[in-house]
Specification:
alpha/beta; five-stranded mixed β-sheet
């Protein structure tokens, strides 16, 4: 799969960043976003579909301009150069007018007025500030923030289960040929239609993720040992699920500018890495993309799938805790927010823990 780049974080504990501090962070963020999307952008520029990475831009509402846009996160103020002055300080106009961004508040003052608490005067240049307006943000997204926190806390509180072996992708094409349906991807099936159906019939299907289960063929839904629903999602998600872990990127997008840029790209990178495994373990022949199949119909393939699941579970829970902290920071500023619950789910989510294996040994 494509190579990774190190994340770029804001200075620890920084409440306000001057242009010479935050602009390099924004530039590094855009460069990292470009590196992470290089494979997909190359295919798009050539007019080719990419059966593996297109998913990251179709299923998830990804726009390159938004992915490249750095946010410092809630509670961090950015000092903006006025652009009309000329001192030794960085006074180049902001290439993106953050003053116009949704849910952002800007404070302007006359040059030299050091009495305005949100304005810092440097020599003869006044630097105005922009920050996320949490009152406006919570008025629109408060319910989303609370739901995301509940879901992530519940997921992080559970042990990972590792006995599904990626059969959700196989269940999505089960008996398609027999029913006269077109399969989901134009890629050929590695084992053919009959061979694919045989794998589904020879293995227990244990899918806990509703947004995978809802794409099962009608013939496959009854084979699933679980019957997930949207209403039951909070009670069923677990950190061994590849799609629940990819969805951390979706929740970052839902929370928008409250999420620091490095966390957004970490979640995107995880989703991209998982997507390559998801397709390698699928019934499709992805050899044209230079990918070796994870042959989950064999004991060796099952063991390899579980090994990768465990790695992704560890990475995903680390991101979950960070995203929960974002939710807590945002909700803690809201007047009238009820105290946090002391349920097992919430308590368990406050500290990272080792992912426990259940329902699957890889054999």
């Amino acid at each position: 799969m494509p190579g990774a780049r190190d994340g770029v974080a804001s200075p620890a504990g920084a409440a306000a960043l001057r242009p010479e501090q935050w602009r390099p962070l924004a530039d590094a963020h855009a460069e990292r976003a470009d590196a992470l999307t290089a494979v997909w952008r190359e295919a798009r520029a050539a007019g080719r579909k990419h059966a593996i990475e297109d998913f990251l831009f179709t299923y998830y509402p990804t726009r390159l301009t938004h992915l490249r846009r750095w946010h410092p996160g809630a509670g961090v103020t950015l000092l903006l150069p006025d652009g009309g002055g000329a001192t030794a300080e960085d006074t180049t106009p902001d290439p993106e007018d953050r003053r116009t961004w949704r849910w952002h508040a800007t404070t302007r003052s006359e040059a030299g007025d050091a009495r305005t608490r949100d304005t810092v005067t440097l020599d003869t240049v006044t630097l105005d500030t922009v920050t996320l307006d949490l009152d406006a943000y919570l008025a629109d997204r408060g319910d989303t923030v609370r739901y995301v926190r509940e879901l992530l806390s519940a997921t992080a509180s559970r042990p990972g289960t590792f006995g599904c072996f990626g059969l959700h992708e196989w269940a999505m094409v089960y008996r398609d040929r027999e029913a006269g349906r077109d399969q989901r991807h134009p890629l050929p099936l590695r084992l053919g239609h009959a061979g694919t159906d045989s794998v589904v019939e020879a293995n227990p299907v244990r899918c806990s993720h509703f947004d995978a289960f809802r794409f099962f063929t009608p013939e496959a839904t009854g084979r699933n040992q679980l019957q997930p629903t949207r209403a039951a999602q909070v009670g069923m998600e677990q950190p061994g699920c590849l799609h629940a872990n990819m969805d951390l990127y979706k929740w970052c997008l839902k929370l928008g500018p409250a999420v620091p840029g490095d966390l957004v790209l970490d979640a995107f990178e995880l989703a991209r890495d998982i997507r390559w495994t998801d397709m390698a373990a699928s019934p499709y022949d992805v050899s044209a993309y230079g990918v070796d199949a994870v042959e989950i119909e064999t004991p060796q393939g099952k063991a390899e799938y579980v090994r990768r699941q465990r790695e992704y579970a560890q990475r995903s829970n680390a991101l979950r805790y960070r995203l929960i902290e974002v939710c807590d920071a945002v909700l803690g500023t809201a007047p009238g927010v009820p105290p946090r619950t002391t349920s097992a789910a919430t308590t368990s989510a406050t500290q990272p823990s080792t992912v426990t294996v259940q329902n699957g040994t890889g054999s």
